[in-house]
Amino acid sequence: MSLTTRKGSGSGRGRGGRGTDRKRRRRRVLRWSATVLAVVILGTAAAGYLYYEHLNGNLRSGERSSGDSKARKAEPNAAGQTPLNILLIGSDSRNSDANVALGGSRDNRGNPPLGDVQMLIHLSADRESASVVSIPRDTRVKIPRCTDPKTGEVFPETDRRIINESLARGGPGCTLATWQNLTGVYIDHWMMIDFAGVVRMADAIGGVEVCVNQNVWDRPLPAQKGGSGLKLTAGPHKVKGVQALQWLRTRHAWGSDPLRARAQHMYMNSMMRTLRSQNVFTDTGRLMDLAEAATKSLQVSEEIGTVKKLYDLGMQLKTVPPDRITMTTLPTVEDSQNREHLVPAGDRAEQIWRMIRGDVAFDKKGGQSGAAKPAEQGKPSADPAAPDAQIGVTVRNGTRSDAQAAVPGRAATIAQALVGKGFARAAKDTAPPTAEAATVVRYPSADLEGDAQQVAKALGIPLSSVKKSTDVSGVTVVVGADWREGTAYPVQPPPAAGDLPDDADALSADDSGKCMDVYKPYRW
């Protein structure tokens, strides 16, 4: 009985043992599989991380602003949204073998690069529209005091210099500061690309379609040296590599620098349409090729100097449909001192900047996204103002612009008007006139904000134009180019959506039917 029991017990242990062994083997297999899977996942993640770090290593970054500038970031709208402004710069650098080969002019190797392409991309606060403005490279503007972040060299403020020279006077951060002072628009980031980068990007995309109405050959002529070498027959063409660079650099064959900006806008619009049609975000191989090309081609301001931040920026831009992207060129007129150069066209140029500062759409499909409304209304200060007679006020003449000379005596006129209103301590600044696009009242510290607002109210200046600034030692009224006559500030209604000057040459990104006309001497 005990034997039977033992056998029974032994038999039971045997069956249980075999079952247990099988379970143990299954557990070992599962553990082994899990280990292998973990190694694969970790290996893939490691490879992904290494590739991510590789792409980050491709990127070059620099200081956002290297010049003196008074522009301030726009206030958020009711939804907490703010506009996004990006300055795109095309450099003519010939500081590498590749750029010398593409750009020619070997004698210029080692010279500071010039910013021959400059575009401001304004993404509305609600991310529903985008406005782009180009300034022709031969436009004369004021370039502020800049410090080269690499060498420490300080470049003094200079008047009436061609805007493309700003890049050579402190790098892209100086170009950004120049734009901020010209426009009154705070610019969040800059991105810069050189000759080799344009070629690399065009090849990665697979080519960009452009179009000409006549055969074009941009070549040297007896009366005009230089030329990009672009040679195409009439009709549409897909350009890539060197030919894409030639298209972007062509000027003589189009007839003017503003028309070159139009050709660049056509190229960029076509490129955006091409990228949208390729669905690159669902094609890993294409995405990697583009990521490799983009990170090798671009130099960016340091606050967007990682692949993730660039990707996030791209996602914001991607939300805007092509029919809500409007390309324009700043209205300009011939410089009276040099027919080869241009200057901003006064009120028509200022209309462009007012629309961007107010976050007003360039097309007629939208309005004001609300980002500028708090700024337009302004907020009364909690700091009580001193009695008018005790407020010290300095009045400066800032009526000079790139298109017009300063109005003599403006500071004295407005100072006298303030005295007549009870501000007994108002006085003119005896310094030479400066250039200020829009009238502003500045104050250095919070305890003077109420005083500054009281002065603005007396002159009819909106509270949105009262700004804190360390550039002044007391309440200072700068009479801008928008107030050239009279003693009551001429408050203008906010611009309407699509209310662009006729010579802004507006072009929608969804318009694929545009072709460039060729200047007759360059037809063949």
Outline the fold blueprint:
Elements lengths: L1 H57 L1 E3 L21 E8 L5 H7 L11 E9 L6 E5 L5 E4 L2 E2 L6 E2 L2 E5 L9 H12 L5 E5 L1 H11 L2 E5 L3 E2 L13 E2 L2 E5 L1 H9 L7 H22 L5 H14 E4 L5 H12 L6 E5 L2 E4 L2 E7 L1 H12 L15 H5 L15 E5 L12 H11 L5 E3 L11 E4 L5 H11 L6 E3 L6 E5 L27 E2 L16
Parallel strand pairs: 1-14, 2-9, 4-15, 18-19, 18-22, 20-21
Antiparallel strand pairs: 2-3, 3-4, 5-8, 6-7, 9-14, 10-13, 11-12, 15-23, 16-17, 20-22
Helix pairs in contact: 1-7, 4-5, 4-7
Structural summary, described in words:
This protein is α/β, with parallel strands linked by helices. The chain is 35% helix and 19% strand. It contains twelve helices and 23 strands. The chain has helices spanning 2-58, 97-103, 172-183, 195-205, 241-249, 257-278, 284-297, 307-318, 346-357, 373-377, 410-420, 449-459; strands spanning 60-62, 84-91, 115-123, 130-134, 140-143, 146-147, 154-155, 158-162, 189-193, 208-212, 216-217, 231-232, 235-239, 298-301, 325-329, 332-335, 338-344, 393-397, 426-428, 440-443, 466-468, 475-479, 507-508. The strands form seven sheets. The protein has an eight-stranded mixed beta sheet with strand order 1-14-9-2-3-4-15-23, sandwiched between helices. A five-stranded mixed beta sheet has the order 19-18-22-20-21, covered by helices on one side. Helix 1 (2-58) runs parallel beside helix 7 (284-297) and helix 4 (195-205) crosses helix 5. The longest helix is centred in the first third of the chain and has 57 residues, at 2-58. The N and C termini lie far apart (115 Å).
